[in-house]
Structures are given as C-alpha cells and as structure tokens.
Write a structure and sequence with these properties.
This protein is α/β, with parallel strands linked by helices. The protein has 9 helices and 8 strands. It binds pyridoxal-5'-phosphate.
Length: 228
Amino acid sequence: MTDLQKNHQELLAELENAALAYGRNPSEITLMAVSKTHPFAAMKELYSCGQMLFGENRVQEAEQKLPLLRPDGMNIHLIGHLQSNKAKKALELFDGIDSVDSLMLAQKLETLASKPVPILLELKTAPEESKSGFENEDALFHALDEIACFSKLKVQGLMTIGPLLGNEKEIRRSFSLLRTTSIRAKQRFPHLDFSVLSMGMSSDFRYAIAEGSTLIRVGTRLFGKREG
Ligand SMILES: *Cc1c(COP(=O)(O)O)cnc(C)c1O
C-alpha cells in the first residue's frame, strides 16, 4: 500500500468516527478526493482502492491532465469558480459542476449542455471572505425560480466553503446556515433535489459532519501539502 492509499484509509476511518461521534450514519457521508495540482496517476492510485469521486478546481488544469477515457465509474466534478467562457469546456470535462454561483452561469450551462448535468449551487456563508457563491438566500432563491424550469441542469444540493480562519463557532455557524438554507429551499422548491450538502475540507470536516454535511471535499489531508 502506498502512503496515499494509507492516508485514504485513515481518512475514511476518521470520517466514520466523526459521523458516529455526532450521531450521523457514516453511509450518508461521501468523500470527494480533491486532486487539484496532483497528477492523474495519483487519482488512479485512489481509484484502485475504491475512491470514485474527485474534485478539480480549474478547467485548464483538468484539460491538461485528465484523459478523455476515464476508468469506469470515476466521477470528476468541478468545485472551483467557472468563468462563462469556459463553460463549454467544463461540460466536456466534468461529470458535475459543484460550484454554480450565478444565474448567468446556470443559464449558460443550460444552453450549452447536450445531456443532463448534475449541479450544486454555491452559497456564501462567510460573508467576510471575498469568494464566489450566491451572496445570500434571496439571490439563491431568485436564481432557483428560473433554474427550476431548466431541462438539462439537475440540482442536487448546495455547496459552501467555510471561513478559512474562523474558530469552531464561526465555522459551524457557516455550515449550519447552509443546512437551514437547504431546508428552506426544499420547502420552496419541493420538486427539486437538495439532498447534497457539500461542506467541509481538510481542516474543518469534523464540524461539517456535526452540522449535517453529506459530502466532504478533502485535498491536503489526503495528498499532502500543495505546491504554491
Ligand atoms: C482545494 C479545495 C478543497 C480542499 O481543500 P483542502 O484544505 O486541501 O482539503 C475543497 N473545496 C474547494 C472548493 C477547494 O478549492
């Protein structure tokens, strides 16, 4: 077993422990391996021990390193901000777009898609940080009014990045906000699916699990520190 595979096993065990500690069912929580800056060979190493879901944050990097023919069942999603002019390429490269952060981008993807595309909508839950995501629930619901009628984009849930420098209370408040927003979204758009709550990274996945995360996005803790 390689170091990477060992990290993977340890992380899965930690996820399971965290789930049990917070009264969650471990089978409700999926691990996404965030492979940005790491080669495709490393992804295959994890795939060979059962890791199916991967996250990449840049279209250009993915285009350079990912082969067109992927191993069976390997799923690669975009988790970084997507510029409209790269939407077409992103649809070719990824099995899902987890970082839809504006109505304009959603409209563009809907127009260009030739088959169903799973998406998550990204919400800003830590407003002090300048990063992408719908600004607030109003903006998100306004976009959903229209996205709800789309035929290609398939909403599966919400995604957020917690405060990168917050304390436990601040981080959990951010994740808790995503969960309550998802509950309200389900009430307002009952025919849409909001079952995925993508929140939690290497440093804060325990808090995310405590707050109801169903999808943890982990890079550093698996692959080690990224260069640059
Ligand atoms: C890089 C990245 C992650 C993983 O972060 P780590 O701290 O390395 O686990 C998760 N989500 C997004 C959106 C990222 O860009």
